[in-house]
Amino acid sequence: MLSSPAPAFRTTSEFTLSVTHPPPSAVRAVPAHPIPRGRPATRATGLAAAVVLLAAIVVLSIAVGAKALPLADVWPGLLDPAADEYTVVHQMRLPRTLLGLLAGTALGVAGAIMQALTRNPLADPGLLGINAGASAAVVTGTAVAGVAGLHGQVWFALIGAAAVTAAGYVVGGGRGATPARLALAGAAINATLYSYVSAVMLLDTASLERLRFWTVGSLATAELTIVGTVAPFIAAGLLLALAVARPLNALALGDDTARALGARPALIRGAVIAAVTLLCGAATAACGPIIFVGLLIPHLVRALTGPDLRWLLPYCAVLAPVLLLGADVLGRVLSRPGELQVGMVTSVLGGPLFLWLVLRGRVGRP
Amino acid sequence: MIVVRTPGGVSLRLRPRSLAVGVTCVLLTLAVGVLALGSGDYPMSAADVLRTLTGGGTAAEEFVVHELRLPRLATAIAVGAALALAGAVFQTLVRNPLGSPDLLGFTQGAATGALVVIVVGGTSAMLSGAAAVSGFATGLLVYVIAWRRGVHGYRLVLAGIGVAAILTGVNGWLLTRAPLMDAARAVLWLTGSLDGRGWTHALPVLVALTVLGPAVLAGAGPALRLMEMGDDAASALGVPVQRLRLALLGAAVLLVSLASAAAGPVNFVALTAPHLARRLTRAPGPNLLPSALLGALLLVVADQVAQRAIPGQQLPVGVVTGLLGGGYLIWLLAAERRAGRL
User: Fold this and answer.
1) pLDDT tens digits, A87-103
2) Domains along chain B?
């Protein structure tokens, strides 16, 4: 948890030491990990295993599709951009895989820090309406301002995500919000924004044609330029998230304790909201709203690592893209030669898990 | 409080304020209705409309009122009342001001059925039927998922949100499978529209209201009021809580299914009408009848706004209710939060 040494007790009793008082050194230090979940070495090994798993999924994501590629050809295919038989790799699957990596990481980490900040097991960018906020802003940009292409979309998505993150925190979040209330606030925001999105689509058939594919959440439209556009935003969000991992650990003990440990609650909250906005806004701009990745992965990872964010975040960053790319590959395999959009696969996979979390009865008690 | 006692031993308690709200809603609905019947490409004065309704109009007037505008108005009134009544029942059962079919996966369930029909190709009757059946099935599914030694409000809400999220993904995917024209039709249906609605759409809802409405109002109204105090208190006072809850949920889901089948799942009427009714009557309890009357008024007014908001373009009524209701909802959430009740 916190590796800060036990505070020295500079009280008057120190200066009037008698034999009956134990010397200060006998005061037991605070254990570094109140909930030990394996030694750091074990967790590092686990992380390495997770990276290997991710590498395997990446290879699969490049090999599997309407035109199957033998696994042996994946590497030469990547190295040889000129060869015709590998066009599919460079034009479609490489950008798609990179985007899945980026978006998955973004959503997983965003979900983890949101859950830590709200102390709410049901926090997820999709459930809380942040993706819907980005969607509504993008739809507005497309229909009203005629924004085409991703460079404009990203800014709209970021603005929308920021607005909803702030609004959601004010309306349904804050301190002392029950999981059920936060989820309801998110559902309300979602319902409102999606009714707006469909209204815009109705009035403008051209934007319907483009947006109906985007609003499902898909990696299919990925291009290298898109990856390049969103990468800086996601990188910034990740750095910010990793930077607040330690103070956010302290914040879990309550504001007063966190202050005593040298953290600044208001600053941390602001940083988390900024990170969530960057991560969700950029991911949504690139692939559309994808639900449940940010909910699922932190829960699974917490079972492995415990609640310490310094371990939780790296694990989420590695395992969330495994889920997203896995879902994407699954969508390609299940309905050859067409495909199921990844957003649909994650909602069908993630929904039951969400329900299971609810039904265990451990969350959602008012 | 006015209490009317009949010789037969039946007593009826009336709150003057609730009564006033109800009567005002009816009068306003009638007034807006007459305006609606007289407006459009063939304008008629209120006097002409009333004369036509009483059988004294010209052939053209008869056709316009009886064939074109009255069915649409009747559908609006029936759908609004059905959605609002169901919403009031839902909110009372879930004991949460946001526990409405809009947020509990029901709407998405009805949409899934409708989309499947649109993608596969089918008649509009099939579409309505599929929407009603799949909406009902979704309601049942949420109930079963939330069941655990009885169904408690917050579990129902969370299960509903989970199911809604899954179905949203499925619906989005279905939308990409359809040709563009069908996709536009599907989005239109999903938003909720009264365009071109006739008696075939209005009648099932009206019949359901006639049958279920009095049953819910008279049979369950008093018990619902007791259930608002919590299951234990209600049980102690002799209310068969779980059985009654199942029956009421069934009735509410049926009303919403039929209303959705008639006009599509019109956004937010079920959520906002009971709220506004509560604020207007200032009466405790479910406020079932005022909610239903207010719901009818809201939908009739929203439909007029939708037809006139953008000149030369007819918005579907669901866009108006969605935006207005959505704004109200966000405000409500913030207000509830300040008041610390949610």
Assistant:
1) 767 777 889 999 999 99
2) 2-339 (1.10.3470.10)
